[in-house]
Sequence to fold (144 residues):
Amino acid sequence: MKILFLNGPNLNLLGTREPDKYGNQTLADIENFVKSEAKKLNVEADFYQSNIEGELVTKIQQAKGLYDAIVMNPAAYTHTSVAIRDALLAVSIPTVEIHLSNIHKREEFRKTSLTAPACIGQITGFGVDSYKLGLIAVTDYLKG
Ligand code: DQA
Fold:
């Protein structure tokens, strides 16, 4: 089972970026954590991050046939990207949307996700554990 973890804009700055909201761990720390959790589940996890919407769209398109599922933190594109939503619908790869912070507890504009309707579900507000919960959710989903 191969799972693609997609990370949107500014998540490359985790560790120093607004640590009160996003914690102290870097994206590399999170990647190591997820990969060790994935190993326990006998699952392969790949990580990709981009600040560019089109690159995320291309990665989703290329995931078809390569990955069984996607766990995605679209970051700010959650709230704006019709292109990412359409890409997810186009490839129809089971996807779980995740967020470190609880987007429903923050500014009004963050409460809307354009991407979540193209996903199986959304996990939001558990910090780094949102990544682990996303991994578990999608693995269970694939197992049926
Ligand atoms: C985020 C929440 C988004 O609103 C924000 O733009 C991010 C990170 C999260 O993980 O909490 O960049 O996706």
In short: The chain is about 40% helix and 20% strand. The two ends are 13 Å apart (CA to CA). Residues 129-143 form the longest helix (15 residues). The chain has one domain: 2-143.
